[in-house]
Specification:
GO terms for molecular function: DNA binding. This protein is mostly helical and 293 residues long. It has twelve helices and six strands.
């Protein structure tokens, strides 16, 4: 009577050998000839089936893992308390609290086994409940707008060497970090805002749209000064109200993100190179990308 054994999480070779065994094949050379599996592998697994009734690896085969289940629980607890903890800090905690000495690679492999990824959280502004509600109301009020005659404005800053702090996370796409904006950049540090608006805004907007256009800008104090407001009321056909602390609503934010990635890929090593690469990438920026923002 043939011994029937079952396939439970086996490798491909072992599964095939088990299949032939269940069909009644007992000759290692014949199975090897038909399957192209090395005869020694076939012979080893046939012996294993006869002795143990299957070809599964027994628990405990191979070198035991250095990090135990209780060590894993401790690591998970440390990450839940502070998911910006580094692999080196985990090593030090294991040594101090668990009397365990491991390498950085061992810690990283174990974290990956536990489902964690080392990710850089996306920056997101800190919003109050009132600001969140105003954003919703603003979106509802403007959901049917025609944006083809809208002029958007924005500014950004560029850094040579960004201070990046990674996190361990099981949900990399959801990882964010709240921040408060600590610096502000105007369009130009010398001229008054009205000169900038007249030179860079009015001429282009009137040339493109005539007298039928509207203008968006955020609520930065330099944009809402008395002189700037008087100028805009006089020269701009229509202004769009803008919810506070909401830079992510502006489509130009997507353009800044693309531009920064392109500049960073060139690895500028000083301010002059940063300025040069920034101007070069700005000149090369594709119109079709801007149209699809």
């Amino acid at each position: 009577m043939k011994l029937k054994v079952h396939n439970t999480h086996l490798s491909t070779h072992r599964s095939v050998i088990l299949h032939y065994y269940n069909l009644g094949h007992r000759c290692a050379a014949e199975i090897a000839r038909q399957t192209k599996i090395p005869v020694l592998t076939v012979r080893y697994n046939l012996v294993k089936i006869k002795k143990e009734g299957g070809v599964e690896h027994r628990r405990g085969n191979g070198r035991p893992r250095k990090i135990t289940l209780e060590d894993n629980r401790a690591i998970g607890q440390w990450i839940r308390r502070n998911n910006e903890i580094t692999a080196q800090e985990i090593i030090e905690k294991l040594q101090a609290n668990r009397n365990l000495t491991v390498s950085r690679w061992t810690v990283q492999r174990q974290l990956h086994r536990l489902g964690y990824e080392n990710v850089l959280p996306r920056g997101t502004p800190m919003l109050t409940n009132e600001q969140k509600e105003r954003r919703v109301q603003w979106a509802l009020a403007h959901k049917d707008d025609d944006w083809n005659r809208t002029v958007f404005s924005d500014e950004t800053s560029y850094q040579l060497f960004r201070n990046t702090i990674h996190r361990w996370s099981k949900h990399a796409q959801e990882e964010k970090k709240e921040f408060q904006k600590t610096d502000k950049k105007s369009w130009c540090g010398v001229h008054s805002p009205t000169k900038i608006l007249r030179k860079h805004l009015l001429n282009g907007a009137r040339k493109q749209f005539g007298s039928r256009w509207r203008y968006q800008q955020d609520n930065d104090p330099k944009h809402t000064s008395k002189i700037a407001k008087q100028f805009l009321e006089k020269e701009v056909p229509e202004m769009i109200d803008w919810p506070s602390n909401s830079p992510d609503i502006n489509p130009i934010e997507n353009m800044w993100s693309i531009l920064k990635r392109r500049v960073e890929k060139q690895n500028p090593s000083n301010i002059d190179e940063l300025d040069q690469f920034l101007h070069e990438e700005w000149q090369k920026f594709e119109t079709n990308i801007i149209n699809n923002l």
